[in-house]
């Protein structure tokens, strides 16, 4: 799965690909590569790395949607290194290349102006081309949200997209649909998508807010010169409907999260290993904090439930968080670590890593170790000069200020300070 790069029409959408290396009896594996990439692999090594892998796009709305001039509705991915497009010397596959270079090459297709990916349009400058570029970006933004965010989330959460009992097709009723292309339902990606959805929810809604006035419901997508009936992005805009479905998804994820503590108590009563393991980890971390005389962090179990931890962090003196009292709820699933913790601030602060709803974005080094989670939670809000990493900026307003001009940065810290004062109440 490739998460759409920020500041592109694919931003934070979830695009799945199958990657087959070599020939022979396949084994299905799960792995990850770059910051924005995870992948489901089918491996057989008889002719790899002498020959390139076979890659197929799975996020195509069942063969109805071409997301890019180089990513067809049929799932074909046109890249020189894959041998699926004519290449110049030096652009072909070599045995020195591998999974990472393949995925990064695919990701590079998801640019902020994909219209120019079409051969012959690289230097397009006419007024017609400029308008086409704008129209192409706008319909990709809409379908990235609808097909690459909303649809897989609804599938994994068991949500019907119907409104008032009516289906919501976004293609022409007389359209002949391609066959043989189905969407992936890779189990490994389900929890990742849920966590990322909570992180990027405000970004999704910000896009809807910005695009809805420009593209009213039922306005048809403009057909591009390089599109044809069997390989195009057809349909119409309906941002109010996308908004409704986004809200329903968020509510379902939050409801699911709030059920974890009760599920955990049932696991404890059944004396399941996960309940024993989490309690042991809690006790070990608590003892370590006492032994280290770390008075900046307190940790408790809510109602003695090992599946709901309460973390309080006291801001370091002489830091931007000085004087703050930051309280977190850490929800743990009975299926941990396959389902990762979801962390919320009781009193959200104005911070690049904290959404307006209080969802904390953090990245532990070890996903199965709760001490790593605790350390990562504290580091996420305490780091004074974090490197620029768009995937972790979950508060769009705060991110613009923090990574803006020096004056913007001052405004960011003023807003942060005001939000910290509210933690005293």
From TrEMBL:
SUPFAM superfamilies: UBC-like (SSF54495)
Domain UBC core: 1-149, 273-425
Keyword field: Apoptosis, ATP-binding, Cytoplasm, Nucleotide-binding, Nucleus, Transferase, Ubl conjugation pathway
UniProt entry tagged with the keyword Thylakoid: no
BP GO terms, sorted: apoptotic process; negative regulation of apoptotic process
Primary residence: cytoplasm
Signal peptide: none
Compartment(s) where it occurs, according to its Swiss-Prot or TrEMBL record: Cytoplasm; Nucleus
Pfam family, any one: UQ_con
Molecular function as annotated in GO: ATP binding; cysteine-type endopeptidase inhibitor activity; ubiquitin conjugating enzyme activity
EC number(s) on file: 2.3.2.23
Coiled coil: none
GO CC annotation: cytoplasm; nucleus
Xref: InterPro entries: UBC, UBQ-conjugating_enzyme/RWD
PANTHER family: (E3-INDEPENDENT) E2 UBIQUITIN-CONJUGATING ENZYME, UBIQUITIN-CONJUGATING ENZYME E2 Z
Record protein name field: Ubiquitin-conjugating enzyme E2 Z
Classification of source organism: Eukaryota, Fungi, Dikarya, Ascomycota, Pezizomycotina
């Amino acid at each position: 799965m490739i998460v759409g790069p920020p500041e592109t029409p694919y931003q934070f959408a979830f695009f799945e690909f199958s990657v087959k290396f070599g020939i022979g009896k396949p084994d299905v594996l799960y792995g990850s590569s770059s910051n924005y990439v995870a992948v489901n692999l089918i491996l057989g090594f008889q002719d790899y790395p002498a020959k390139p892998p076979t890659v197929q796009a799975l996020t195509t709305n069942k063969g109805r949607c071409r997301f890019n001039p180089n990513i067809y509705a049929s799932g074909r991915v046109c890249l020189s290194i894959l041998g699926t497009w004519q290449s110049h010397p030096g652009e072909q596959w070599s045995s020195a290349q591998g999974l990472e270079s393949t995925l990064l090459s695919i990701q590079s297709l998801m640019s902020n102006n994909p219209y120019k990916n079409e051969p012959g349009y690289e230097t397009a400058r006419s007024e017609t081309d400029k308008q086409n570029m704008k129209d192409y970006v706008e319909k990709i933004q809409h379908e990235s949200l609808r097909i690459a965010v909303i649809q897989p989330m609804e599938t994994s959460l068991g949500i019907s997209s119907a409104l008032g009992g009516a289906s919501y097709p976004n293609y022409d009723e007389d359209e002949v649909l391609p066959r043989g292309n189905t969407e992936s339902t890779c189990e490994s990606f389900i929890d990742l998508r849920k966590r990322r959805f909570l992180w990027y929810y405000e970004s999704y809604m910000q896009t809807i807010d910005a695009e809805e006035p420009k593209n009213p419901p039922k306005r048809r997508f403009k057909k591009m010169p390089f599109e044809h009936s069997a390989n195009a992005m057809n349909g119409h805009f309906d941002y109010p409907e996308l908004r409704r479905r986004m809200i329903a998804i968020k509510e379902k994820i939050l409801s699911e999260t709030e059920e974890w503590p009760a599920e955990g108590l049932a696991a404890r009563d059944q004396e399941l290993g996960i309940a024993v393991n989490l309690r042991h980890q809690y006790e070990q971390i608590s003892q370590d904090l006492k032994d280290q005389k770390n008075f900046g962090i307190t940790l408790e179990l809510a109602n003695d439930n090992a599946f709901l931890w309460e973390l309080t962090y006291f801001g370091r003196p002489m830091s931007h968080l000085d004087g703050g009292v930051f309280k977190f709820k850490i929800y743990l699933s009975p299926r941990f670590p396959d389902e990762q913790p979801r962390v919320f601030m009781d009193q959200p602060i104005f911070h690049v890593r904290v959404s307006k709803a209080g969802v904390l974005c953090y990245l532990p080094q070890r996903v199965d170790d709760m001490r790593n989670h605790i350390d990562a939670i504290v580091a996420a809000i305490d780091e004074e000069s974090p490197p620029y990493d768009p995937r972790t900026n979950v508060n769009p307003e705060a991110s613009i200020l923090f990574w803006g001009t020096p004056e913007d940065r001052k405004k960011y810290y003023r807003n942060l300070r005001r939000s910290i004062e509210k933690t005293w109440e």
